[in-house]
Every structure is written in structure tokens, then in C-alpha cells.
Amino acid sequence: MNTEIIEEFRATGGRITNPLVPEGIRLAVLTTTGARTNLPRTCPVAYFAHGRDAIVVIASAYGAASHPAWYRNLVTNPQVTVEVPADSGDLARRTAKARTARGAERDGLIAAMAVESPIMSGFVENEHREVPVVVLEFLEGPHDDAQPMTDLEKLVAEREIRAAMTRYCRGIDRLDEDLIRSAYHRDSYDDHGMYKGDGYAFAADVVPKMREAFESTMHFIGNSHIELDRDVAAVETYFIAYHVLREVTEGRRLMTFAGRYADRFERRNGEWKLASRIVVLDWDEIRDLGAANPPEMRSTFTAGRRDRDDLVYHLR
């Protein structure tokens, strides 16, 4: 049913004739990022306008006893995309930040909803749970969906996404907090296994741990699959990360992680950065390293450093 509604919505500029949609309901199409999969998830939602720069949606799930999946998604990743009918008769596609209204604000929105959309206000009643009332605040003006991305725009977007990926890798290996942060939006989310939380703060958490646990690290990224949708990109990138363990015992040990970065990139203010990341582990191992080359040979090379005194920071 949802697929049919979305197809008609997009084909008609938001005019719905499906008899399963109650008369008097205003529909939008909402795209969230899957809380577990990190993939785009799209569904129709009822809404009412909240000033010029926001709309309000209700996580009713048709009266179900639990919250709908799209609400759980936006709690984890509050950056969403909304398609709403425009005055021109076409669709306006907007990037928005979601937040759940509470207390007096929630009560006020429900009261306004009763006037604006009496049918929709009935969705708030549920004997099993408090139905979330969600405000979607627009972050920028509407996109012109009539103009698809050109090949040049796609090439530039892919280049900038890969540049953010390589900045991240250098930042991790050189223990450079600022460089790691440069790959993330300030309100991003990161799931790195033992760390789950604010992507922008990830750098401050990971750098001291990497410095303490490992003598050196080296991150390689491989093939990337980039699916662009204007200002949003779903990106899968293969990686192998090598970590030389700090140990008191004799010899050296190597920890290897191989997996994929499942990323959602977003372009905001002209910059492509990570909005969310989930690290997928495919295989790992710890093994003994053989003897290093003789010191007299190693000393002939420029030694790598894990700070801004490393040679690469002084190439220009």
C-alpha cells in the first residue's frame, strides 16, 4: 500500500486519490536512515504545517502498540528528507532535522492539530503508549526536483566523498583529532562497535585509546559503492585496518580488522560529510609478527610519526 501511495504522490505532485487515505489528510513522503542498516527508508506520513519552516508528523503507526520503524530511525539519525506538495503544483524536497516535542510544546501542537487537522489529531490517542509528536524543522530551501544531477555534479560529489574518507584514514593513523572531525557533520552518529554515539565527538574518544593500545596503525580503503540522491549518498566502502599492539611481552603482534564502512553522507552548505556511520566487521585476526628489518637498514628511511610532525603535513 505504501509503495502505491508513494508512486502516486510523486507522479501527481502530491495529489492522492487512493481510497485508503482518509479525506482531509495531508501527506508527505519521509526518508529516514535505517537505525540498524544505515540505508534510506521511505514512507508516507500525515502532517500539518508548523509555520513556514517546519511540519509536524505523528508516530501513530495506525494505532499500533509500538512506535513505527521510521520513528526509531529518526531518533538514531535525526537528519531526514521530506517531500511535500509545493505551490507550483510540483513537489518540494527538503532536508530537515527531527525532534520529538514534549511537555507544554506537545500539548500546544496537539491543540493546534485539532484545529488544523481534526482527523490527524485522533491519531494521538493510544491506550498502549504516548504517541510521539515530531517536529521536522527544515534546514534549507526546497530542491528543484525537475533538474537531476548532471554527470559532472555526480563526479564532483563522488570525489568529495572519497576525499572525506581519506581524511578520516589519515586522521586515525596520525592521531589527528581535527582531521578525523573534518570528515563528520557536527550532529552525526557513529557506531564503531565498542563506541556508539556522537560522530563529531568520536575523535576525542578514539585518539587516546589508539595511542595507548597500538604502536602504529594503517587503514586502507578499497572499492566504494556510492548511491547519490542529490544531497544524500548511501556509501559502502571496503576497508582493512592493521594495528600493531603495544605489549610488554617479547615480540610483536598484529591485530587486523577487515570490513566495510556503511555510511550516509550528506551535502550541507556545499560540503559532503558523514551524517552517520556503521562499521561492519567481516573478519579479524591477531597474529605474531616476524622480526623487523635490521636497525641499520630501517634507519635509512624517514620514520613515520603519529602526530602533525609527520612528513605528510610538510609536503607543501
Structure explained in plain terms:
It contains 8 helices and 12 strands. It is α+β, with helices and mostly antiparallel strands. The longest helix has 23 residues. It is elongated. The model has no long low-confidence stretch (mean pLDDT 87).
Q: What would you report as the Rg, rounded to the nearest angstrom?
A: 24 Å
Q: Termini separation (Å)?
A: 58 Å
Number of strands: 12
Strand order of the largest sheet: 1-2-3-6-5-4
Mean pLDDT: 87
Low-pLDDT regions = none
Order of helices and strands: HEEEHEEHHEHHEEHEEEEH
Shape category:
elongated
Strand proportion, as a percent range, falls in 35-45%
Give the class from helix and strand content and strand pairing: alpha+beta
The helix content, as a percent range, equals 25-40%
